[in-house]
Design brief:
Helix content is 45%, strand content 4%. By secondary structure, the chain is mostly helical. The chain has 2 domains: 92 residues, Type 1 dockerin domain; 151 residues, Lysozyme (Orthogonal Bundle).
Length: 277
């Protein structure tokens, strides 16, 4: 591939900081490879998939995502970028180790052990989405959930809220939060009674876990899809295939009007790849 011209500044804020030779207090810098969309130090098919989803408008992305995924440096993330990332992932091409030093905190990442999650009434950046997913993974792991079960739920959350966003409300309705509770009062009443803000990621994760337990009336077998069922206890500990578990959560808890199974499964697979890396 043609030599990529060097770009060192991801945002206007970063440009100003660089010009003044100022490093903000607490800023954490990270070296990220060109094409490494999920920042795990490797260029993989999942990175190409993310770039393609950005190209067709299925993902919200930020300045770092543009820097990393716009591999032909034309100012856009396009299908051609995804194709080139995939070629590198399978060994048919190389980016020759090009990488960028970025301020993770400035771009919405998280390094604070007291981090409680990002929320927005619109959308989150990819870095914020990943930070939220990592927090959810940690919280559910502490509650005894398996990796596959967590990633199955993350796949559903990603589809429901767009960017694993606890602050989002349905565009043409009232459904709200990570899994788009409808009516939202089923979560909001619990949050108020237990001291959580409406858009609290931690509150929503704890409510989700509680609301799935026996006797709560939210987790049950679907008459239309009885093949997808596990008890609450079996589900959270399950090591079964993530595709199957994604559908179990979809039909035992979400029960939407239109399932969009394939989209949820794709997200779940991506998160499994991320947390397995």
């Amino acid at each position: 591939m043609k030599k990529r011209k060097q770009r060192f500044i991801a945002t206007l804020t970063a440009a100003v900081i660089a010009a003044l030779c100022i490093i903000p207090a607490g800023a954490v810098q990270q070296q990220i490879l060109l094409g490494d969309a999920n920042r795990n130090g490797k260029i993989e098919a999942g990175d190409a998939r993310f770039a393609l989803r950005c190209a067709v408008g299925l993902e919200i992305y930020g300045a770092i995502d543009m820097l990393i995924c716009d591999v032909d440096d034309n100012g856009y993330i396009q299908a051609e970028d995804a194709r080139e990332i995939l070629r590198v992932a399978v060994g048919l091409d190389s980016f020759n180790g090009v990488s960028y030093t970025v301020d993770v905190e400035e771009q919405g990442g998280n390094t604070d052990p007291a981090f409680t999650g990002y929320a927005s009434p619109t959308s989150l950046t990819w870095a914020q989405t990943v930070a939220n997913a990592e927090l959810i993974y940690s919280l559910l792991s502490q509650l005894g959930w398996s990796r596959n079960a967590i990633c199955a739920v993350l796949g559903n959350m990603h589809h429901e809220s767009g960017t694993i966003n606890p602050g989002i409300q349905q565009t043409y309705g009232t459904a709200y939060g990570l899994v788009q509770w409808d009516p939202p009062s089923q979560y909001l009443d619990w949050a108020s009674a237990n001291g959580y803000a409406a858009d609290s990621l931690i509150g929503q994760v704890y409510y989700l876990n509680e609301s799935m337990k026996p006797g709560k009336g939210n987790w049950f077998s679907s008459s239309r899809h009885p093949e997808y069922y596990e008890t609450y206890s079996d589900f959270i500990a399950s090591e079964k295939d993530v595709d199957y578990l994604t559908c179990v959560f979809l039909y035992c808890y979400e029960r939407p009007g239109i399932a969009h199974e394939a989209r949820r499964i794709e997200h779940a697979r991506d998160w499994l790849a991320y947390f397995s890396g």
